[in-house]
């Protein structure tokens, strides 16, 4: 379900992006906030630890958008790199969750 949310967020980001990053990217910000809220909801319901990490990394991405509003100098390159960079740790958290769940299931099967 979370992977589907990531795919949907990726598609929505592509549709919402101007690709310039010269100004605040409102569409990408909305997508990132919605993904953050979904990850927080998942983290609150889950008994696993990885959703908390994914939500924390996504929160940093949201703060990058907020920082770009506050910073008025021409840092479009830094904004573009930072917004894109934080998507990778979020995906790594998902991959770690998948790997840990797979390992847990294999261990449970061998114990039976």
The percentage helix is over 70%
Q: Please state the average pLDDT score.
A: 87
Biggest β-sheet description? none
How far apart, in Å, are the first and last alpha carbons? 28 Å
The helix tally amounts to 5
User: What structural category arises from helix and sheet content?
Assistant: mainly alpha
Shape: elongated
Number of strands: 0
- Which strand-content bin applies to the residues? under 5%
Low-pLDDT windows of residues: none
H/E topology pattern: HHHHH
- C-alpha Rg (nearest Å): 16 Å
Question: Could you describe the 3D structure shown?
Answer:
- The protein is mainly alpha-helical.
- It has five helices and no strands.
- It has helices at residues 2-16, 26-45, 50-70, 76-85, 87-111.
- Helix 1 runs antiparallel to helix 2 and helix 3 (50-70) runs antiparallel to helix 5.
- The longest helix is centred in the C-terminal third of the chain and has 25 residues, at 87-111.
- The chain is elongated.
- The mean pLDDT is 87.
């Amino acid at each position: 379900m979370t992977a589907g949310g990531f795919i949907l967020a990726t598609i929505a980001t592509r549709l919402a992006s101007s690709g310039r990053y010269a100004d605040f990217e409102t569409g990408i910000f909305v997508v990132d906030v919605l993904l953050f809220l979904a990850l927080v909801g998942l983290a609150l319901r889950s008994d696993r630890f990885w959703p908390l990490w994914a939500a924390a990394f996504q929160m940093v991405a949201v703060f990058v958008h907020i920082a770009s509003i506050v910073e008025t100098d021409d840092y479009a390159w830094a904004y573009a790199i930072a917004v894109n960079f934080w998507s990778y740790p979020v995906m790594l958290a998902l991959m770690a969750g998948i790997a840990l769940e797979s390992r847990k299931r294999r261990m449970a099967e061998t114990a039976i």
